Amino acid sequence: MAANWWVAPAPVTRRVRAYFAPVNRATQTPVLFDAATQGTSFCLDAPPVPWIGLGWIEDFNRQPLSKTAAVQTGIPAAALQQVRETLGAQVSLQFLSWTKLTMALATGSQHMNLLAPASGAAAAADGAQAAAAVVVQSGSTATSIVLAAADAAPFGAGQIVAVDVDNTGQTGFVGSPVAGAYLRSALSDVDYVRRVTFNLAPVAQVTAAGLTLAAALPGGVPVNGMKLQTVRGFVDREGGSFYQEWSALFVVEGSQGERIFFHYPRLQSMSSAQESSLPLSGKQQNRLERVLLKGQFLALPVSDPLDGERVVCYRSFLPAANALV
Amino acid sequence: MQNAKDSFYMALRTRLAAIDPQRAILLRGAVRPGILVEEAEAPFSQLPSDVFVLRWLGLGVDVDLGSAMAAEQAEILYATCGTQRFGGLDRGRMLSAMDEELMSMMQPFHTPKLNYLATPPAALLTQVFWDEPSFAPVSVQRDRLSRSATVTVYSYQEQGE
Known about the structure:
heterodimer; A: mainly beta; B: alpha+beta; STM4215-like; two-stranded antiparallel sheet; 2 helices; about 20% helix
């Protein structure tokens, strides 16, 4: 009854999932995805380090911007060959969840943490002067922060904390492990790096010895000199000169187990913060709506070490088992 | 197509046994997980309570593909009168429990296609898959609450089927 092959039609899928990995902005080094070694084992619910899940996305649209031109020769002129004049691509999508990462990626500027304010601090649009940070003690891990007992006492389960270094007047890209901003000149705000850092996690439990985090810090084990502050929320601005950049991986899983990977080693946000609304029920227009984050991105090129070609995207396909190719 | 229907039913049955082992039915002298295929049993005067009944309805076929695709519409019916212990006053809760069990049974939304004519069942090459169930409103008949959910089950026809 069973044959040993079958002709697979076009993949049928439910939705697309997106994954993020940080780009080293200083060296312009992206995270590369190898579909041959990681494609089959890539767990969609628990992606391998350094990939971070961004959840489901909608309206995923890839738009190639590369232009080709024909080299004409002869009388009358006819195409002799083609050349690629420009290289480029854009990606647009809608995130189905609001998180630090999805908000940051869907805005064309730096994305900041609203740090818990100091008592009596004057109001500011980016968040008031923050309450003093506490020192992360040695022995901390990505999921367990060791604090002095007095420092741990004010924290509570359910809070979000930011862990990063003080701003001591440094310039250039700041934030760990993701560059959250670029400082052209020194700033006086000692908490600035923690305002822009992506090194956040929610607190699961507080003990006299410190905090147990509900998720691992994206930056891993805190390094010496890092401090911790409570985050109330997030804020971004229309304007500014910083563009978020990330290594992106979009995964389409077909009904037969086949997988399509779209890997953009370098994607930069290219539009300001936008939202769209999606009615929860088609019969109840203008009532309950889901607010989605819209993102539009420009793909930047990398040089493929295989042959030195400049490329902006890799599309990989892992066929279903026993499917004819 | 029968292989797809069998595989879908067996997937739900296996999942139900894991989700709620207590939901069972005594049928033809055997205790089985609480889901049955209506067309594979003797006709019922009234569908049994507190079990899921799978009924096959429409069928569509797309032959303009490398492998023909069948789309079979399944209706899953379930009803409850609640428990004697609470005098039936928990019938709403019992129906909600069955709603949740059905959603759990449906996920993941695919299962390997097997040929159950063979012993043991022979694995075929493709997966049977389906979309989210569409739940109908509750129907009330005296103290009996019932609901149905419909789902379209897709499968590819393989060589030899």
